[in-house]
Specification:
Layout: E1 3-5, E2 12-13, H1 17-29, H2 35-40, H3 46-58, H4 64-83, E3 90-91, H5 93-105, E4 108-111, H6 116-125, E5 134-135, H7 143-151, E6 159-162, H8 165-173, E7 178-181, E8 190-192, H9 198-208
Bound molecules: magnesium ion.
Length: 213
């Protein structure tokens, strides 16, 4: 019964994230993409976003080497900023604790748009149990495809917890129940504030799955 969690904005946040992504690309490409260029991207995963920026700048898709180079530069940039103490991530303590309580009873996955190595770094920094599997962005995978991959072979019911409309859209595309974190995902699903307590998260997830505890 996999319960999947998005990471950024759902379990915590790394406020300078998009600045660092732009800086990493500036290092690799010689010029930083602008905020406006980033704003034009329609994808929700790093792979989709970096590919869109690459196409706009160079007129062709990003290849595997190009993505690996970006990923290495981006993780290095995050390490510089977050392991030096220059910045600290904000973890949503109640949600993190609730996720770990759920993981003690059921299969939990982190399914995020971060490049895999960046996702590994962020998850570690947020203190997420290494036993919880992580799935980051992959070539030719929109967010719903990542979710589908995490769920494949596992018996349902499944569920996605996320903070953005693209998370809800991915859940809906697969017919999954959804629990929203924060106020940026309107809809008739259950929504919780980011400072919610662990017990409320567990109760909301179980209610959305139809589990009576
Ligand atoms: Mg998010």
């Amino acid at each position: 019964m996999p319960i999947c969690f998005d990471l950024d904005g759902t379990l915590g946040h790394f406020s300078s994230g998009f600045v660092l992504l732009r800086e990493a690309l500036g290092e690799v490409w010689g010029q930083m993409p602008t905020v406006e260029e980033l704003g034009l991207c329609r994808g929700s995963t790093d792979r989709e976003i970096v590919d869109e920026l690459h196409q706009r700048r160079f007129g062709r898709s990003l290849d595997e080497t190009g993505y690996a180079t970006y990923e290495t530069a981006c993780v290095a940039r995050f390490r510089q900023v977050f392991t030096s103490g220059a910045q600290e991530p904000v973890g949503y303590r109640g949600i993190l604790e609730g996720m770990h309580r759920l993981a003690a009873l059921r299969q939990v996955w982190i399914v995020s748009g971060n490049a895999p190595e960046l996702l590994a770094f962020k998850a570690e920094l947020l203190g997420i149990d290494p036993a919880i599997p992580r799935l980051g962005s992959l070539p030719h995978h929109a967010r719903k495809d990542l979710l589908k991959r995490a769920l494949s072979g596992c018996p349902g019911p499944h569920l996605y917890v996320g903070d953005r409309p693209h998370d809800l859209a991915a859940a809906q595309a697969l017919g999954l129940p959804f629990v929203g974190i924060g106020g940026a995902v309107p809809g008739d699903h259950k929504s919780l504030p980011s400072d919610t307590g662990a017990e409320h998260l567990v109760a909301a997830v179980e209610a959305a799955l139809g589990i009576v505890s």
